[in-house]
Amino acid sequence: MTLLSARGVSRIYRTFSLVGASRAKRVLEDVSLDIHAGETVALLGRSGCGKSTLARLLTGLERPDAGEILFGRRSLASLGKEEMRSFRQAVQMVFQDSIGAVDPRSTVAAIVSEPLRRLVGIDGEDCRRAVAGLLRRVGLDPAEADKLPAQMSGGQLQRVCIARALAPRPKLIILDEAVSNLDLNLQIQMLDLFQTLRRETGVAYLFVTHDLRLVERFCSRVIVMDDGRVREEAEISRPLELSSPAGRALRAAVLPAMPMRV
Amino acid sequence: MTSRCLEISGLTVRTMCDGRERELVSGVDLALEGGEVLALVGASGSGKSMTCAAALDVLPPGTWRAGGTVELDGQVRTAREVRGAYVATILQNPRSAFNPVRTMRSHAHETLRALGMGRSGRNARVEAAMIDAGLEDVPRILALHPFEMSGGMLQRMMVALALMSEAPFLFADEPTTDLDLIVQREILDLLERLKKTRGLGILLVTHDMGVVARLADRVAVMDAGRIVETGPVMDVFHRPAHPTTRRLVDAHLSLYPTLSPAEPAT
Question: Of A48, A250, A259, which has the smallest distance from its Cβ to B150's Cβ?
Answer without folding.
Answer: A48
